[in-house]
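Pasting as-is:
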Amino acid sequence: MTRIASVQRVAMRHPGDVAGVAGLLDGGLDPRDIVAILGKTEGNGCVNDFTRAYAVQALCVMLAGRLATTPEDVAARIAMVMSGGTEGGLSPHFIVVSVAETDAPPIGALAIGTAFTRDFAPEEIGRMAQVEATASAVRAAIAQAAIDDVHYVQVKCPLLTSERIAAARAPVATHDTYASMGLSRGASALGVALALGEVAAVTDDAIGADTSLFSGVASCSAGVELTRNEIIVFGNSPAWAGDLRIAHAVMQDGIDLPAIHAALHGAGLDHGGGQLAPDQATRLVALLAKAEPSTTGRIRGNRHIMNDDSDINATRHARALVGGVAAAASGRTDLFISGGAEHQGPDGGGPVAVIARRAS
């Protein structure tokens, strides 16, 4: 038997709306095959964005009924990666990732591996313990899926809250709960980079500080709803069957349209130098990207105010900016654009990946 991956995208009317996922199950998707669910929810994407936890809870309750188990068991076995923030024209949606077996021969196709770290103590978040545990889990996921061509590594990671800081048994990396999101994302991304050989070594002092160290395939999203890292590795493998392929590129800044075009082209989509035509857009299964305001306060020499706006968080501005560029390129708005790209691509940029079906 050969493994085959399925990636299906469904809309959500609100963070607790799992009807689209339930519809996939009613249509024949075996819930036992689901290995991960990614979601873009309409919260603020910050520490107090509970739309992420709400969506996870709704999914776990629904899937528990289908699997004849408990919501806790569902959360333990399926990677739930909820990314808050659908600013601009981004549309809330779920991406359901499943792996099954088939009699079809392996032809070289999308392959998916998942892994989980142990739970982290508060004082380990944003530090080398998180880097090393993430690197180990990434290596395990790659080996488990026999991936030889990695294009995107999605990580959901924890953050610090006031309660967790108070419970720490040693000094924490920061007492700023919002800053802890960036340090957790950064440590997770550097763990990916370490596992893939993109960096040779990492130290505590480099996390969140040395922007020259980054992964070109890591996408990390922090949330209050978990205490471990949940990892999904997307790549291509000659040992897998199916009609899906993945490709990626690295955006150098928030308006790097050529990088998005490169990812689309790498996945076999003809963009013609502009927006995907409808027949090409229907073959687009998912577009995933990171968004980050540059720390210099400039994009190609022009000043931006994303880091100076006290009313709207900078990551929210960045998601709207990159989401607009990606939507113009793809002709779709149900795109997984995640904010906060510390050590995920160069300063102000980030990786972009495209999953598409082969032309029939």
